[in-house]
């Protein structure tokens, strides 16, 4: 989590996707060192829910999204989707399952093949799976394009460079939807877009979620955007989960000092609110090669104490489906001491 | 921090008053498809020590405007007219040699993407000292010492070690701090910041904007902050100019712009930002479509094809820039708050209610 723990998970069978103790590490050359990208996180997503994953660059949110797709396979941990364990699925089984989980990426222009026509880009998944007749496939492509607000007549024979960033993102959404997936993982889908286009894409994703009955994981660094689209938000820092709560609850009562700092960094479109530099978190993200011992946020935390270096906080229930991994949460009582405190301080320290 | 900057503020320079005057600046590009009118008659002034925010979507011409003022555009196929006066001196007619003396020393610029605006094969130190040696005639050791102090000013830990590093060894936020150090090196009187934080995380964005504000205060520098996000400029500028399709469509002191905005485009831009105080799943109000093609801009008001309050007159007659109160100008026939505006708002909400009723039955 800044701590570990599984207190926030729903009962088995309730969730569409559930992730326990997911760890992703990347070896660094032959040095024997490892990048601790994601370190034992757990979360789940209910059917029809939108879960927001939020945090700074380097917090492991994109790695988490990719690990769900087994791209690459996680180092350890378990991921179950509709009750099936994904981490042990092999070859053909995994390939088939990927049709029900699709991804949308940050840069819409580079995620479309510049040499292909829009029609072919969107039709490719159907062609690969040989779904329907040629006419049915064509009708499906036209319908999906229309759903995302692209006129198939005018657009289908054009190539990605003839479209703006926002339109390219719509095409990416169409491509992800064409196989009728159950779940969509959106990895920073609006970070590269203007605010006006960002609003269009956010509304589009909300509409598509209803029309296609989707479950969504929405990854972003901007809490205002995440709050707008998500039912529940999971805040990440340096490969750990800090706080999990419904988006409204998280905003009203941010309990982890990191969540608090993130909220205060959002620029407010109101000139009467003066930016306050004293509330910023200082410094940079520590190296994921040598994450701090105990709570990983302690090196930048305004309320860090000795206990934070020795003992890793675990997610605990603050009531009302609000979970925080912090010994000294903002506006709440201190975490009770745990008897396993000494055995928990295992992470390498700087 | 403060000690350094004072040594760079040229003695005898006035601390306030007019610094930059841009008058009817036009920048057009000849292309195969026709002439792109990227900047089409923009006028504004900037006082010493003040910050102007220029806001608009991609394609509204805000980046070309700042580059045109800085003279950073290619000469070929570019048609530039109008006047840019800096400290009373006309810049558009200066020779390349003379412009070089002004840009870099008196006027400096930082760009959106710190990854591409730094030279990847040059050490950070060399990139900062380049300008110091060239413009300030500093010796190598003086330049190195100044560079180290600059890195310290912009909040880079262990500045001495960083001088010997390459850009790829730094994080995105650190790189942007380095570009700021380079821009500040010769003590400019005006700094152009073109989307300085768009490529960065929100937490780093806040740090960089704080840094710019602090440096600006210490150096009594003027700043032009170009962005697409009204949230970024709200608490940090004295004045805001909103640009659309190559023209200024509204300009006002920051507080006035937010409290009495007149131009429907400004209103739409503000409404499209997700508000953190709204409940989740609040529907965002969007501006349909995208900025117009600047080869054949729409007749009449250029925003008319996307304007929710459009009327016949908007389609044929171009609204002039009129003054509402002192310093607050806008270009709209039926501005926010006018009777015609309220009429359209009522029409739209009636339509929405009817739609909801039809959907419910």
Please give a structural write-up.
The complex is a heterodimer of chains A (about 350) and B (about 350). Chain A is of the alpha/beta class. Helices cover about 30% and strands about 20% of the residues of chain A. Chain A starts with 14 loop residues before the first strand and ends in a 6-residue tail after the last helix. Residues about 340-350 of chain A have low confidence and may be disordered. In chain B, about 35% of the residues lie in helices and about 20% in strands. Chain B is built from 14 helices and twelve strands. Chain B has helices at about 1-10, 60-70, 95-100, 115, 125-135, 140-155, 160, 170-185, 200-220, 230-235, 255-260, 265-270, 310-315, 340-360, and strands at about 20-30, 35-45, 50-55, 80-85, 90, 105-110, 190-195, 220-225, 240-245, 245-255, 320-325, 330. In chain B, strands 6-7-8-3-9-10-12-11 form an eight-stranded mixed sheet, sandwiched between helices. A four-stranded antiparallel sheet of chain B has the order 2-1-4-5. The model of chain B is unreliable at about 1-10 (pLDDT under 50). The chains are: A alpha/beta (about 350), B alpha/beta (about 350).
Keywords:
heterodimer; A: 350 residues; alpha/beta; eight-stranded mixed β-sheet; four-stranded antiparallel β-sheet; 31% helix; disordered C terminus; B: 361 residues; 12 strands; 22% strand; globular
Largest beta sheet of chain B: what is the strand line-up? 6-7-8-3-9-10-12-11
Biggest sheet descriptor of chain B: 8 strands, mixed
* Element-by-element helix/strand order of chain B: HEEEHEEHEHHHHHEHEHEEHHHEEH
Large-scale geometry of chain A:
globular
Which stretches of chain A are low in confidence, meaning pLDDT under 50 for 5 or more residues running? 341-350
Give the strand content of chain A.
15-25%
**Separate helix tally of chain B:** 14
Helix content of chain B: 25-40%
| Biggest sheet features of chain A | 8 strands, mixed
Structural category of chain B: alpha/beta
Mean pLDDT of chain A: 89
Distance between the termini of chain B: 67 Å
Computed Rg of chain B: 22 Å
Number of helices of chain A: 12
Q: What structural class results from the helix and strand content of chain A?
A: alpha/beta
Number of strands of chain B: 12
């Amino acid at each position: 989590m800044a701590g570990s723990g599984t207190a926030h998970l729903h009962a088995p069978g309730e969730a569409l996707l559930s992730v326990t103790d997911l760890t992703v590490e990347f070896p660094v050359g032959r040095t024997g060192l490892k990048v601790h990208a994601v370190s034992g996180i757990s979360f789940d997503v209910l059917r029809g829910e939108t879960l927001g994953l939020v945090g700074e660059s380097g917090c492991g949110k994109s790695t988490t999204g990719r690990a769900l797709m087994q791209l690459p396979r996680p180092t350890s941990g378990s991921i179950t989707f509709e009750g099936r364990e994904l981490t042990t699925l092999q070859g053909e089984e995994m390939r088939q399952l990927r049709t029900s989980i699709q991804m949308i990426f940050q840069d819409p222009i580079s995620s479309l093949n510049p040499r292909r026509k829009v029609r072919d880009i969107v039709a490719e998944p159907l062609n690969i799976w040989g779904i329907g007749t040629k006419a049915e496939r064509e009708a499906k492509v036209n319908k999906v394009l229309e759903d995302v607000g692209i006129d198939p007549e005018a657009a289908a024979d054009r190539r990605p460079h003839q479209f703006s960033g926002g339109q390219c993102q719509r095409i990416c959404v169409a491509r992800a939807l064409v196989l009728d997936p159950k779940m969509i993982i959106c990895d920073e889908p609006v970070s590269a877009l203007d605010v006006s286009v960002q609003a269009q894409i956010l509304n589009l994703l909300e509409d598509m979620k209803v029309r296609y009955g989707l479950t969504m994981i929405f990854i972003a660094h901007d809490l205002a955007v995440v709050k707008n689209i998500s039912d529940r938000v999971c805040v990440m820092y340096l490969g750990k989960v800090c706080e999990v709560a419904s988006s409204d609850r998280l905003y009203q009562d941010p309990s982890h000092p990191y969540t608090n700092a993130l909220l205060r960094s959002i620029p407010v479109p109101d000139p009467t609110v003066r930016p306050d530099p004293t509330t910023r978190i200082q410094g940079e993200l520590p190296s994921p090669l040598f994450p701090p011992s105990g709570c990983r946020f302690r090196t930048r935390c305004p309320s860090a104490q000795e206990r934070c270096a020795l003992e890793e906080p675990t997610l605990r229930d603050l009531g009302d489906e609000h979970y925080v991994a912090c010994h000294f949460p903002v506006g709440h009582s201190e975490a009770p001491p745990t008897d396993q405190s000494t055995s928990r301080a295992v992470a390498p320290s700087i | 921090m403060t000690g350094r900057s004072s040594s760079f503020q040229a003695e005898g320079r006035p601390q306030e008053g007019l610094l930059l005057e841009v008058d009817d600046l036009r920048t057009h590009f000849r292309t195969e498809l026709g002439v792109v009118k990227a900047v089409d008659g923009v006028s504004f002034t900037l006082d010493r020590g003040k910050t102007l925010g220029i806001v608009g979507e991609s394609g509204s011409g805000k980046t070309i405007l700042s580059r045109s003022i800085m003279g950073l555009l290619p000469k070929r196929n570019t048609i530039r007219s109008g006047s840019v006066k800096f400290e009373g001196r006309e810049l558009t007619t200066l020779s390349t040699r003379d412009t070089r003396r002004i840009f870099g020393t008196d006027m400096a610029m930082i760009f959106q993407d710190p990854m591409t605006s730094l030279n990847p094969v040059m050490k950070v130190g060399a990139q900062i000292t380049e300008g110091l040696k060239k413009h300030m005639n500093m010796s190598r050791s003086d330049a190195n010492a100044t560079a180290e102090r600059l890195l310290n000013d912009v909040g880079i830990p262990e500045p001495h070690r960083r001088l010997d590093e390459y850009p790829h060894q730094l994080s995105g936020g650190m790189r942007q701090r380095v570009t700021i150090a380079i821009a500040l090196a010769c003590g400019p009187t005006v700094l152009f910041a073109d989307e300085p934080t768009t490529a960065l995380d929100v937490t780093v964005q806040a740090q960089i904007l704080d840094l710019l504000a602090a440096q600006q205060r210490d150096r009594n520098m003027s700043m032009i902050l170009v962005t697409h996000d009204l949230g970024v400029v709200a608490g940090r500028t004295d004045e805001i100019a909103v640009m659309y399709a190559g023209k200024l469509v509204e300009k006002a002191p920051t507080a006035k712009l937010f409290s009495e905005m007149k131009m429907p485009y400004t209103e739409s831009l503000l409404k499209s930002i997700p508000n953190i105080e709204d409940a989740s799943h609040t529907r965002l109000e969007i501006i349909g479509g995208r900025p117009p093609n600047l080869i054949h801009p729409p007749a009449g008001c250029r925003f008319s094809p996307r304007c929710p309050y459009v009327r016949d007159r908007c389609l044929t007659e171009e609204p002039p820039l009129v003054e509402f109160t002192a310093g607050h100008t806008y270009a709209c026939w039926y501005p926010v708050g006018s009777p015609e505006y309220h009429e359209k708002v009522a029409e739209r909400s009636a339509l929405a209610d009817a739609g909801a009723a039809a959907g419910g039955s």
